[in-house]
Structure prediction request, 505 residues.
Amino acid sequence: MRGGLAGSLLTGACGGAYDRDSRSGIRAGDNKVFAHGVASGDPLPDRVILWTRVTPPEDQLGSIEVIWQISVRDNFAGGREGTVQTDASKDWTVKVDASRLTPGRPYYYRFALRNIDTGNLIYSDIGRTKALPRGEVKKARFAVVSCANYQWGYFNIYDTIARDGAFDAVLHLGDYFYEQAADFYGGETGKALGRQHDPRHEIVTLDDYRRRHRQYKTDPALQALHAQMPWILIWDDHETANDSWKGGAENHQPDKEGDWEARKRAALQAYYEWMPVREPAPGRTREEIYKNYEWGDLLSLTTLETRLVARDEQVLAEKAPEYFTNEQDAESFKQREIAAPGRQMLGEAQTAFVAGSLAQSKNADRKWRLVANQILMAAVDTPDLNPYISEEVIQGVEQSWPDVRKFIEISKYRPPLYPDCWQGYPWAREQFYQSVANVGVRDLIVLTGDAHEFWANDLYAEDGSKMGVELGTSSVSSPTLTEYLGSGTKDYALLVTKENDEVRY
Prediction:
């Protein structure tokens, strides 16, 4: 029967069944109220986060009461409901931690508002979700995605996954959106498609980040996929700024864009408002989004945070060409700067958490140990491209990639392929490997995004012991290597595989 709450409300609201005679609501057309869709995520065995956003009238000043409903039936018969308040301080977003769910059971959910003028209820779309299973689980199926740039193209893969529907969850490995300006990184494509970034400038303030979230969640393919199944999310760099680290970002210039901490706080506030993720547990900061999920006796999924908690600043080799003029200086630079002891990626607290989660998974005799990871973990260096890339190819991509000539020139010294990835932090990677090896885990399946290409890699510690495998997914819409290397891309891919022992594909 109806009544009560299906869980604790993140806004602190509480109470019994919704009063059908209540006049709390808004004046709005039915087709405009829930313009950003519905979403669910961060599932646990007995609960899941439900999300939506109300589009308020321009003259709305006070809070709005939103009804939420959850049921095992799509007509919501026999389901439960509650109410929650939202207002401008939350950018009119709504999050409910719906609890008392049956593990592994599918549920339907929706939101509603009362139209003050007519007294009728205005409903959102219906979403589908489910809590994590317990006990014996024979299989699990995930859709793994990364790197969705609104102005680089349509989100067709989101639509494809939503139409399939037979997944247990979406694992989004970061770069859910991009922070850059409309005239940068896909600007011409976005202009041609009518998909340029809003706001048009690079986002820096809280209002900027909220507007970018709003824009992305108007995409019909993204809305469809959010409504189909729960999401497990980690961020990468573009949710704050390109190549971010704990003290700044490559794409943050303090003299132009102000204090990094202020920008980061704005980005994280908007992220927690707009994404179906649970607020930090007591004692944790908003940066500490790393978590562990368990699919019964089948698998564990541990998510990493590799940007804002502990990462030290990147050593970007292309910005230090003076050290890549001869082999001796290049090797000295790599050992002195890139491989320097103490350069952190995860930090001690997160490393201990991950090792503990993996130990728990092994001790419980779960069959698989998955790690959701933002950036390539395998040891991958740049192959020497000089004998293979012609001047014609260079000239063909130089306009879209001004540094291509420098990149090819220093490739003969084998710098890390992506200094922003784990190969740019070899000490931190070895510390991570040793921490999990110490609890008896050497069978990792690392799922990785960021690189805009598909990868299959072996993972080895420095002593040669096998630590697991890495599977990298390509991008939703962000450009692949053909955008930069043109007809030389095939040779480049073959060389990367040939000259790096850990790369299988």
User: Anything to note?
Assistant: Residues 295 and 478 are 31 Å apart (CA to CA).
